[in-house]
Amino acid sequence: MRVHFVGVSGTGMGSLALLYRAQGHEVTGSDAAFDPPMGPALLAGGVTCFTGYSKDHLFPRPDVTIVGNAIRSENEEATHVRDNHLHAESMSGALRSHFLAHHRPLVVTGTHGKTTTSAMAAWVLHRAGQNPGYFIGGIPKNFPSGAGLGDTKRKLASSGKEVALPGAAPPFVVEGDEYDAVYWRKKPKFLDYVGIGQHDVVLLTSVEHDHVDIYPTAASYEDGFREMVALIPAGGLLVVDARDARARHLAKECKAKVVYYALDGDDTGDVTPTWLGAVVGDAAQSAETGGGSDIQSFDLFIGGMSCGRLALKVPGAHNVRNAIGAMAACCEAFGVKVADARSALAEFDGVRRRQDLLGMPSGIHVYDDFAHHPTAVDETLRALKSRHPKGALFAIFEPRSATACRALHQEEYVGAFSAAEHVIFAPLGRTNIPENERLDLGKLAARLGPKALCAKDPDEIIAFVKTHAKSGDTVALLSNGAFGGIHQMMLTALT
Q1: Is the pLDDT of residue 485 over 90?
Q2: How many CB atoms are located within 10 Å of the residue 411 CB?
Q3: How far apart, in whole angstroms, are the C-alpha atoms of residue 397 and residue 268?
Q4: How far apart are CA 178 and CA 480, in angstroms?
């Protein structure tokens, strides 16, 4: 086929374009710019890239045009597609019809932890010889990219022999986010990933109000998840973090089998988790014993039976939670042995932009992380403090998302930075929000006291860190955007 992408250089659209290329299709795409990392990846993958939007890009007529969710209806190419009745699909619709329809989906969704949990599940299935397809909203360090085709053949772990499994659809792990699919379908993308076969698997990590530009109320946000749960077939499986009260409530409406997981000490309401993890060690204990560790250990219990101690390279209790969810889904739904999952998780290197160590200039650990919701900020900073308890932690936060720039979580952010000794706020990444609705950074800094600073630009941030940070300290750059290129500037300044 000839496939054209309108808005191709985003992470999801670009990954899908490369999947089509991997199948041998001719792929073209247009976008306003082709910045790294996706721009160079598309060119290297053989995608013909057009800068800017023009109806001329749609000649010769493509067999299918895939329109990104950032594209407005008045876009020149979108208008041409409509006026000339070209076959058009959303990214999630194309992924469903062209890829997921031939696999057994494992859809990882929820407010927090989707990317890391998806990457963990794909790696566990891969190391177990099931050769999964995967489509992840980040770049897992164990894979060459965020998307892979998988195969209809699986390698048996015991013999290493590759065999075809007739009638058994191979797994396909997909990160299901709640952003709307496309301008003509204002529904969460994850709705396109469920209800495909009789044995779909969904992993629900959490449900906490987010994306207020699309979902103005908590109820409207939860409605999408409720609709998704209703789509899971009776022969499928729903894996749920039992700590989350909203997720537990939604799970009660599921007609499929439900499996719960949690950490020891969690309030799990009226449900008993089958999969339970007990984190070994914390930041306080690490400090007493002379420093942090590069290994996060936890004890695993399944149905009340001890299954031994497991180890992760990625720190933090939230990553233990992600790992247990991934194990539960892979073992319960796809028959992966616990021992094989344990070995795979011990090799898991994480995901870029998730506690991603960029370098150690002058002995200072500099991390990049995508965290922007207060829950994610809190968990990330606690994890980094646990790994490096002896030095000071500098939390540098750019509120950039539609939710982070609003006052919705003004109070929650006060506690989110408790693990840091120094907190620096960059200016809001959005200026189109009414002033009375904006996150008040000055008020937030005042609540945090002397440890907090509001900076006017990246230069002021870098100057502060360069003056105050010393060997053994940790710098966490928190943003869901490019943060003005501060990452490389920080490394250079501290060297």
Answers
A1: no
A2: 12
A3: 31
A4: 16
Please name the residue that has the structure tokens 């469903």. Answer: 96
Strand pairing category for 356-359 and 365-369? antiparallel
- Please report, as a single letter, which amino acid is at residue 407: A
Confidence of residue 160 (pLDDT cuts 50, 70, 90): low
> What's the mean pLDDT in 14-25?
93
Strand partners, 422: 394
Q: Are strands 452-454 and 422-425 parallel, antiparallel or unpaired?
A: parallel
Q: Which amino acid is at 351?
A: V
DSSP 8-class letter at 442: H
Mean pLDDT value across the chain: 89
Q: Give SS3 for 143.
A: coil
Tokens of 448: 């945090």
Flag the least confident range among 149-153, 161-165, 211-215, 470-474: 161-165
Compute, in degrees rounded to 10, the torsion defined by CA atoms 373, 375, 377, 379.
-150
pLDDT at 166 over 50: no
Give me the amino acid identity at 342: R
- Which residues, 6+ apart, have CB-to-CB distance to 252 below 8 Å? none
CA distance linking residue 49 with residue 39, whole number of Å: 9
- Give CA–CA dist 399/441, Å, rounded: 9
State residue 243's pLDDT score. Answer: 95
Across 234-345, the runs of DSSP E, i.e. the strands, are: 237-241, 257-263, 275-280, 296-302, 305-312
Distance between start and end Cα atoms, the chain? 50
- Could you tell me the CA-to-CA distances from 197 to 89, 97, 101, 201 in Å, in that order? 20, 12, 8, 10
Determine phi and psi for 453, rounding to 5 degrees. -140, 135
What lies within 8 Å, CB to CB, of 216 at 6+ separation is none
For residue 99, give the amino acid letter: F
Q: Of 226, 244, 382, nearest to 325 (Cα)?
A: 244
Instruction: Confirm if 28 and 50 have CB atoms less than 8 A apart.
Output: yes
pLDDT digits (tens, 9 = 90+) for 114-146: 989 999 999 999 999 999 999 998 788 899 888
Q: DSSP letter at 392?
A: -
pLDDT at 194 over 70: yes
Alpha-carbon span 467 to 485, nearest angstrom: 20
Q: What does the block give as tokens for 416?
A: 């989110």
Residue recorded with tokens 């609540």: 447
Share of the chain above pLDDT 70, in %: 94
